[in-house]
Amino acid sequence: AHLICQGVLDEVVIFTAASNHNGWVDFLRASLEEFAGVPRGTISRIIAGEDCRMRDSATGRAFKDLRLVSQDSSQVLIIDDKPDFVQHGEVVAVGEYRQHVPIDHLVQAMPCSPERRAFALEALRQDQAQFHPCTTDFSRDCELFYVMQRVSDFFNVSHPPASVLTLPPRLVERH
After folding, report:
1. Taking the model in full, what pTM does it have?
2. Are 157 and 8 in contact (CB under 8 A)?
3. Interatomic CA distance for residues 47 and 64, integer angstroms
């Protein structure tokens, strides 16, 4: 939001190969804005799997054509865990984040019928059976700081705003 107000960014877009058919990405956008403490609408658009026309014939993965964000894709930066499937524009490659965070207690607290709760728990169970939880400890991961530096460099921002995270002293020597 800070970089939009300064005119450094035109917009922030979620570009995902995931489907938004049931509103999952809409929910994710609202959650990210809430968590980040930015005004609603800071993430101005969603480009989801339904918008991706080209797919890899071998894997079925969607190609993300950054010209969907802007015709001048030289001004588009995406942060993605599957950089080989990004076309046009600039990509900052990051590792896939698969940390398992148990949320059964949140499902139990959902204000819904027992049937809907059971449905949600079963969906979680099936998801975990298909995509096994990762046991990697990400507590010392510094990838976010690398991404912040790449974003600052791409948009010629000399330094991040004071409200941006700084590298914890205990991690400085590892970075």
Report:
1. 0.71
2. yes
3. 9
Its domain, for residue 128, covers: 100-133
The residues near 24 (Cβ < 8 Å, ≥ 6 apart) are: 18
Q: Is residue 79 part of a domain?
A: no
In a domain, 115, yes or no: yes
Residue 138 lies in a domain: no
- Give the separation between CA 36 and CA 141, rounded to whole angstroms: 19
104 part of a folded domain: yes
Q: DSSP state, 49?
A: G
CA distances from 140 to 135, 165, 168, 170 (A): 14, 14, 10, 9
Enter the tokens of residue 34.
């809430």
Rg (CA), the chain: 18
Whose tokens are 């999952």? That residue is 24
How far is it between the farthest Cα atoms of the chain? Answer: 53
Q: List the pLDDT tens digit at each of the 175 positions of the chain.
A: 778 888 888 999 999 999 998 898 999 999 999 999 999 999 999 999 999 999 999 999 999 999 999 999 999 999 999 999 999 999 999 988 777 778 888 889 989 999 999 999 998 888 888 888 888 777 788 888 889 899 889 998 875 554 555 555 544 444 4
